[in-house]
Amino acid sequence: MLIVKYKNMKNWKVKFSSQTVSFLLEGKFAAINKIVDKSNAFYITDENIFALHEKKFIGKNTIVIPAGEEHKQQAAVDFIIEALLHFGATREAVLIGVGGGVVTDIVGYVAGIYMRGVAVGFVPTTLLSMVDASIGGKNGIDVGLYKNMVGLIRQPSFLLYDLDFLKTLPKHQWENGFAEIIKHAAIKDASMMKALASHDLNYYQKNKKALALLIEKNVKIKVKVVQKDEFEKGDRKLLNFGHTLGHAIENQHALLHGHAISIGMVYAAKISQVMEGFNDTGLLVDTLKKYGLPTSMHLDIDQTMQIMQKDKKKQGSSIQYVLLKKIGYAVYQSVPIKSLEKLIKLYS
Ligand SMILES: NC(=O)c1ccc[n+]([C@@H]2O[C@H](COP(=O)([O-])OP(=O)(O)OC[C@H]3O[C@@H](n4cnc5c(N)ncnc54)[C@H](O)[C@@H]3O)[C@@H](O)[C@H]2O)c1
Ligand SMILES: [Zn+2]
Question: What is the 290 CA–ligand 1 centroid distance (Å)?
Fold first, then answer.
């Protein structure tokens, strides 16, 4: 049974359609036994995190899965379910995913199907999972090369933020997280973009207080968007800013997700200049650069257009595209594929 009752952890409760989620924004993983019943708590993490933070798992029922997107597959689900059965986990179990988006996506899904559903909590350990992947209830696995093909929308009971985990996060994973943070600023928060533009990656890595505040702000942006549109009928689609082109080049060039969407955002900003009169591409580009993110690359236009047309967002001869009217104000627009191709060519 889950017993979120620890008064000393700041507990921000957010109501979604079927579940209230506790955001423990100043959480301490060391104090987690105060919020879950130890004997029913089952921790699932990946091998990298386990190797770096092994001591934190002493005395806990822990299941360690292989790290990496290539393991976000059914085999990991089977492995976790078998381990849970081996541990004797019942309907009272609470699964706790400690990791990046790969772990939280898999664990959220397993919790949704194990014994027809048990409680789940997340301890996000990458910047990206703190501000994006672990929030919103989307979970699931890839099927072969097809990303996120199987899964559920189901909210966790709690998210515990312990920023100490970030001490071991490699630099490129910080960049990955900042791509989503800059995305949030671009679509929802002009003043955050200003703050980001006046600092850089090094500043936030060194300044714990500023980082904690920035994470909290981004959690709130994602929560607000999801709360308004849990099942992605409208506003939640804005979170795809930079992702349509980003996804098309991510696989083609084996780029890191954050790097691909960084380039995707720059193209989307340039397309917005023509379609929406947007005039702040320079600010976006300069900010991305400060966080080690790429802002241009050579594109194979034909291949990119082909991949984009296979995307879920295609409708007839148009593609649904997130564009900016100004920093902090995004819109969802249907753009004819022909015009899109012309504009992408123009800016390549
Ligand atoms: N559900 C959603 O709404 C949503 C949103 C965005 C992304 N996602 C998913 O999230 C995944 C990407 O998440 P991610 O970027 O966190 O990737 P990830 O989980 O693969 O983590 C990245 C790498 O960092 C390592 N790592 C994690 N925490 C660490 C730490 N504290 N110190 C050192 N190393 C650490 C991991 O072992 C891994 O090698 C994708 O599968 C994506 O589909 C889901
Ligand atoms: Zn993303």
Answer: 22
Q: How far is CA 218 from CA 19, 179, 188, 230, 256, in A?
A: 21, 12, 10, 17, 21
List residues near ligand 1 (CB under 6 A): 46, 48-49, 52, 67-69, 72, 99-103, 105, 125-126, 128-129, 132-133, 136, 138-139, 148, 165-166, 168-169, 173, 176
pLDDT at 314 exceeding the cut of 80: no
How many angstroms separate the CA atoms of 254 and 263, rounded? 13
- Going 199 to 200 to 203 to 209, the CA torsion angle's sign is positive
Exactly one of 116, 167, 298, 310 is catalytic; which is it? 116
Whole-number Å distance, alpha carbon 91 to ligand 2 midpoint, is 33
- Distance (Å) from CA 28 to ligand 2 centroid: 26
pLDDT tens-place string over residues 249-260: 997 888 999 999
The C-alpha atoms of residue 195 and residue 178 are separated, in whole angstroms, by: 13
Specify the 3-state DSSP secondary structure of 293. Answer: coil
Per-position b or e across 18-30, b if 16+ CB within 10 A of its CB? eeebbbbbebbbe
| 99 alpha carbon, closest ligand | 1
Report pTM. Answer: 0.96
